[in-house]
Write a structure and sequence with these properties.
By secondary structure, this protein is of the alpha/beta class. A 5-stranded mixed beta barrel has the order 1-2-3-6-5. The longest helix has 24 residues. It is elongated, with a radius of gyration of 22 Å. About 15% of the residues are buried.
């Protein structure tokens, strides 16, 4: 019994050492923030180019970044939070926090920035 436990423990330890070594050497891809050149990780500030929503509170919003000039298409859903509590209009400046879900940028919070 003691020899079997020792063998299983050694296999486990060797597996952990190999996985850690692979992670340090760069075998696994490193985790990067999406669009790190924007205002923050997973956040974009810019003007609304177009917005489409349907009766089910789902849709898309295209935002042109103030910082880089790129356009981003964000998917809106039932759980998207709007501050203040309304949809933004075209040409309004917004700050969008989002998640990258397998290449689809899903907006989690849309904050309308009041112009001074």
């Amino acid at each position: 019994m003691g020899k079997i436990r020792t063998t299983k423990a050694m296999v486990g330890i060797i597996t952990i050492i190999i996985l850690v070594g692979m992670g340090i050497s760069g075998t696994f891809p490193t985790i990067k923030f999406a669009h790190a050149d924007e205002i923050g990780p997973n956040a974009v500030q810019g003007k609304v180019v177009s917005i489409y929503t349907n009766v089910f509170r789902k849709g898309t919003m295209v935002v042109k970044s103030d910082k880089t000039g790129k356009t981003y298409t964000f998917y809106l859903g039932r759980r998207t939070i709007y501050v203040p509590h309304r949809y933004p209009n075209v040409e309004e400046t917004v700050k969008v926090s989002y998640i990258d879900d397998r290449g689809f940028l899903k907006a989690t919070r849309v904050e309308i920035i009041q112009s001074a």
